[in-house]
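Q: What would this chain look like folded?
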Amino acid sequence: MRKFIIERDIAGVGAFTADQLRAAAAASNDALCRIGARDIQWQQSYVTDDRTFCVYLAADEAAILRHAELSGFPASRISEVRSIIDPATAR
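A: My prediction, written as structure tokens:
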């Protein structure tokens, strides 16, 4: 599978309560189960004031768009990860 970063514009998401974030994760997990682990997997998400940046493994963009449709969370921008670098890359 390929790695993608999905930007989701969600007004006020940074102020969500723990219960609201739990409900959002549950909705995402439900959509993932409906699509199937062979086509899409959620790794983690970073929450900012009005946007989330989600890291997914997916067969293709179509699986990500299907997840957005089923979960009700927008896929405002989908970017495929081409390389990963970190401080050790400089060595």
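Residues 25 and 65 are 17 Å apart (CA to CA).
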